[in-house]
Amino acid sequence: MLLSLPVHLLILLHASQLSLASSGDRSFEFTTCTANCAISKCQPHHGSWTSTWGSNPIPLSLYLTRWSCQDDCKYTCMHSITAKAIASGRPVEQYYGKWPFWRYAGMQEPASVVFSVFNLWAHWKGFKTVRRRLPNDHPMKKLYLGWAVLSMNAWIWSAVFHTRDLPITEKLDYFSAALAILSALYYTFIRLFHLYQRPKLTSSPKPTLTPNLPLALTFLLTYAAHITYLTSGPRFDYTYNTIFNLILGLLHNLLWTLYSLPSSASFLRRYPNRPKSYRPNFAWKAGLFVALTTAATSLELFDFPPWAGVLDAHAMWHAVTSPIAYLWYQFLVQDALDGSWRDGGGVIRG
Questions:
Q1: pTM
Q2: What is the torsional sign of CA 101, 107, 110, 116?
């Protein structure tokens, strides 16, 4: 979710194109097929999710995932036209900005749903690792736990969105992802610019994190303004949403790249009680994370019809981000347990 500049720019252009109607759903063949299907199948409510299809009730899986009769007509026509295109050697078209996927148990993109759950599991494991290994008085513990919770929330909504692409699930997916990225950038500022309250030897063993109020308010107001803009217009501004997340991702990755560089090439002092020249032997892992996330997101550039109607580039991206997230938690814990945190504060209990 946090990317390099070239990949971000390419995905920005690609996302802007997908926000428009696709050639498949604009075709005469598709519109005619869906109209005829609705007339013959959708009764008595003409497309409400409680309507029956002929004399048969809606299958339970489609009922639970809120497929309307007209939605099912679109799905059926899409795959009928796609099968004819493949048989005649014509290219497969996109419909409403997406490739034709085979649904399973009502899920529109089952592979992306499964891999979203994998990412949820990775953040849950990371949450437990941080809670278990960091002492309660460590200034970064609550921030890392908070980010883990927001990330789990984001992947829950990702799974929901890929189950059923509806206006409300799309917004919840995008908004929760933006909140998770903002949270990651917030803890990055706190950690790398040492904006936490440094513990003192005479203090009681209580959590030492005191929220940086101006910074926290800045982030909260930024998020509120972001949501307000996206929900107040006549249509969802996909280009703006991409640019917003682009800026957040760039800042996050840039700062951790600086952390990983040799001291002579970075202006960051990694620990306040150590000289700027001090670079722990695991600092390279932050740079590796940036490289891996960039490589993973590059999969999005290889846009192709889903293999077997299930696995596309986006699903593959979700598949490779879960182990990267797991490794990132290992790095955060290793950084938090570095002996430099003891100097002048005794944060780490031996």
A1: 0.85
A2: positive
Report the 3 state secondary structure along the chain.
CCCCHHHHHHHHHHHHHHCCCCHHHHCHHHHHHHHHHHHHHEECCCCCCCCEECCECCCHHHHHCCCCHHHHHHHHHHHHHHHHHHHCCCCCCCECCECCCCCECCECCHHHHHHHHHHHHHHHHHHHHHHHHCCCCCCCHHHHHHHHHHHHHHHHHHHHHHHCCCHHHHHHHHHHHHHHHHHHHHHHHHHHCCCCCCCCCCCCCCCCCCCCHHHHHHHHHHHHHHHHHHHHCCCCCHHHHHHHHHHHHHHHHHHHHHHHCCHHHCCCCCCCCCCCCCCCCCCHHHHHHHHHHHHHHHHHHCCCCCECCCECHHHHHHHHHHHHHHHHHHHHHHHHCCHHHHCCCCCCCC
Residue 56 has pLDDT above 70, yes or no: no
pLDDT at position 214 over 60: yes
pLDDT digits 0-9 by tens, 246-259: 899 999 999 999 99
Q: Taking residues 185-192, what's their average pLDDT?
A: 96
pLDDT at residue 126, rounded to an integer: 98
> What pLDDT digit, counting tens, does each position of 292-332 carry?
998 888 887 788 888 999 999 999 999 999 999 999 999 99
Give the contacts of 59 (CB within 8 A, at least 6 positions apart).
Answer: none
Question: What's the CA angle centered on 172, arms 178 and 116, to 5 degrees?
Answer: 80
**Residue 205 is encoded by which pair of tokens?**
């063993």
Range from 114-118, 145-149, 212-216, 311-315 carrying the lowest mean pLDDT? 212-216
Q: Token pair of 94, please?
A: 């996109």
Query: Is the peptide bond between 280 and the residue preceding it cis, with omega within 30 degrees of 0?
Result: no
What tokens appear for 260 in the block? 């990983």
